[in-house]
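Shapes recur. One chain:

:::
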Amino acid sequence: MIGYVMVGTNKFDEAAKFYDELLGVLGAGRFMDTESFIAWATTPGAPGMSICKPNDGNAATVGNGVMVAISASSKEQVDEMYAKAIELGGKDEGEPGLRMDNFYAGYFRDLDGNKLNAFYMGE
């Protein structure tokens, strides 16, 4: 199982604020915080999301075909996360909606261009 997902950033302070507010919609908070790495989770030991300055000192780049999917507790929470991402300067990659029978998702990019989605599976 995945323990955490990490995306690189070239805008560390701005990315930290973006993810503080975005992941706050889920009730997630920081559980690790250094000058070059921050990680968030909803509870200790739960899967987490993190940002980092690349360790090699080079610029962070976006992975082609890479996407982080964030599990929401309802369709309304998907809508809220998508709206929050756009409000914070994220870019639209597909408004929230039903994609398959019971898969509801909204797609967006963060301030560095990393692709994410918020999704809910259920009725």
The beta strands are 4-8, 29-33, 37-41, 48-52, 68-71, 91-100, 103-109, 115-121. The domain at 4-121 is CATH 3.10.180.10 (2,3-Dihydroxybiphenyl 1,2-Dioxygenase; domain 1). The helical segments are 12-24, 75-87. The mean pLDDT is 95.
